[in-house]
Amino acid sequence: MAFPGFKLTWQGRRKIKGGVHLESRKEFTADKPIVSDLLLPERLYLPLQQHAGQPAEPVVRVGDKVLKGQLLAAGQGSISAPVHASTSGTIVALEDFPAPHPSALPAPTFILEPDGEDRWVELGPEADPFGLAPEDICARVDAAGIVGMGGAAFPAAIKLSLGRRTRIRTLLINGGECEPYLSCDDRLMRERAAGIVDGIRIMLHSLGCRHAIVAVEDNKPAALAAMLEAARPHGFIEVAAVPSLYPMGWDKNLIRYLTGKEVPANGRSADVGVLLHNVQTAYAVQQAVRFGRPLIRRVVTVSGGAVAAPRNLEAPLGTLLSELLAYCGHRPDRTVRYVMGGPMMGDRLPHPHVPLIKGACGILALSAGEIQAEDAKPCIRCSRCVTACPVGLLPLEMMSRIRTGQTDAAVGFGLEDCIRCGSCSYVCPSRIPLVHYFKYGQGELMARREAQRKTEETNRLAAEKQRRLERTRQEAAQRKAQAQAAASGGAP
Amino acid sequence: MYILFAVISLTALGLALGFMLGAAARYFKVEDNPLVDEIERMMPGSQCGQCGYPGCRPAAEALVAGQAAATLCPPGGKALAEQLANKLSLEIDLAGLKEQAPMVARVSEATCIGCARCFKVCPTDAIVGAPKHIHAVIADACIACGKCVEVCPTECLGMHPVKTTLRNWRWAKPEPMAAGA
Question: ipTM of this complex > 0.85?
Answer without folding.
Answer: no
